[in-house]
Task: inverse folding
């Protein structure tokens, strides 16, 4: 895959505030709708797993790079409708 993200901030910059905050809810219960910085700080400082091997931010970046987040899914707006068949 080309163009993998290295940080959660990069994901935010690519997709924008609303999409990022919605996707972050799948990884953290500490999403602050009024502050991207607070949300990112919380996700970078909270463990995602019980063994403390990765933070919520690390998990979101890993899933994003593997194509597993809602941000990787194509939206209906991006899909062009099929062209009708032309009869000859």
Result:
């Amino acid at each position: 895959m080309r163009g993998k993200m290295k940080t959660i901030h990069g994901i935010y910059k690519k997709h924008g505030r609303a999409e990022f905050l919605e996707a972050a809810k799948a990884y953290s219960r500490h999403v602050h709708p009024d502050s991207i910085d607070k949300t990112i700080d919380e996700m970078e400082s909270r463990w995602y797993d019980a063994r403390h091997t990765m933070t919520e931010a690390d998990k979101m970046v890993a899933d994003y790079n593997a194509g597993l987040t809602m941000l990787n899914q194509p939206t209906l707006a991006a899909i062009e409708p099929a062209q009708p068949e032309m009869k000859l």
In short: The chain has four helices and no strands. Residues 36-45 form the longest helix (10 residues).
